[in-house]
Specification:
Elements lengths: L21 H11 L13 E2 L2 H14 L13 E2 L1 H7 L9 H4 L9 H7 L2 H35 L4
Helix pairs in contact: 5-6
């Protein structure tokens, strides 16, 4: 993500479990990113509801005997809180599929995986990434003016 615009700066890479094995894919992620660097800001996860990814990656790394993948122990940006605030503080209805053009949630992904409908999984991941980036860019373009407006209300 571009720190200036929130837009993508590279191409989407989908690590496909059906082309390899989970342990190999997770190892590739650890090797090809700066996630394990000692410097906390080398890899900053940005997403929506990162708790889901955190729990999954942490548990699967443990199962495979890989280094700890704890995406919430270093700096991260989770836009879920913005969705909750935009829904008036309500968690219900604040999913990415409820506040963007994302057509559905990920409930069908395990089913598609089980029956080998991998094209639908790729389409889903691409749609989710596209809608996340669109939302992120929109927020980046509007939040600076909110900060200026907020500063004008300071009494000190």
């Amino acid at each position: 993500m571009s720190p200036a615009s929130g837009d993508v700066i590279g191409r989407l890479v989908i690590l496909k479990a059906w082309e390899s094995c989970e342990k190999e894919i997770m190892g590739k992620f650890l090797r090809e990113t700066s996630f394990l660097d000692a410097y906390d800001f080398s890899f900053i996860p940005v997403g929506y509801n990162l708790g889901f990814e955190h729990n999954f990656l942490k548990r699967r790394a443990e199962v495979h005997g890989l280094p700890d993948i704890d995406i919430l122990s270093k700096p991260f940006i989770d836009l879920r809180v913005i969705g909750i605030l935009m829904k008036g503080g309500e968690f219900k209805g604040s999913g990415l599929n409820k506040i963007t053009g994302k057509e559905r949630d990920g409930m069908m992904v395990p089913v598609w995986n089980k029956v080998g409908d991998y094209d639908k999984i790729v389409e889903y991941v691409e749609m989710e990434a596209r809608e996340f980036v669109r939302f992120n860019v929109w927020l980046y373009s509007r939040f600076p003016s909110l900060f200026i407006e907020w500063k004008k209300t300071w009494d000190y």
